[in-house]
């Protein structure tokens, strides 16, 4: 589900914010980049990632968090919006 959510979030953010979207290449993903919105690298993580401190790698790019709800996906893009 993660990859499908990631793609959907990037596409919707691109449309809603009228930003170009570029998918990450394997070498980008190796350093935590899941895509580029308006040229800005971003990482997409489930909200539960915030609580998994032992598993977290150091991501130097804005993280867009999401959680699944009964209505769909809820997105927290505040880190991205602050950097834009």
**How many helices in DSSP terms?**
3
Beta-strand content bin: 25-35%
Largest sheet: 5 strands, mixed
Count the E strands.
Answer: 5
Biggest sheet: strands side by side, in what order?
Answer: 1-2-3-4-5
| Structural Rg | 12 Å
The whole-number mean of residue pLDDT values reads 88
Segments where pLDDT lies below 50 for 5+ residues? Answer: none
Dominant shape: globular
Which class best fits the helix and strand makeup? alpha+beta
Topology pattern, helix = H, strand = E: HEHEEEEH
Cα end-to-end separation: 27 Å
Helical amount among residues, as a percent range? 25-40%
Commentary on this structure:
31% of the residues lie in helices and 30% in strands. The protein has three helices and five strands; from the N terminus they run H-E-H-E-E-E-E-H. The chain has helices spanning 2-17, 26-29, 78-83; strands at residues 21-23, 35-37, 40-46, 63-69, 72-76. The protein has a five-stranded mixed β-sheet. The termini are far apart.
Overview features:
single chain; 3 helices; alpha+beta; globular; 84 residues; 30% strand; five-stranded mixed β-sheet; 5 strands
TL;DR?
With 84 residues, the chain is of the alpha+beta class. It has helices at residues 2-17, 26-29, 78-83; strands at 21-23, 35-37, 40-46, 63-69, 72-76.
Ordered list of secondary-structure elements with their pairings:
Elements: H1 2-17, E1 21-23, H2 26-29, E2 35-37, E3 40-46, E4 63-69, E5 72-76, H3 78-83
Parallel strand pairs: 3-4
Antiparallel strand pairs: 1-2, 2-3, 4-5
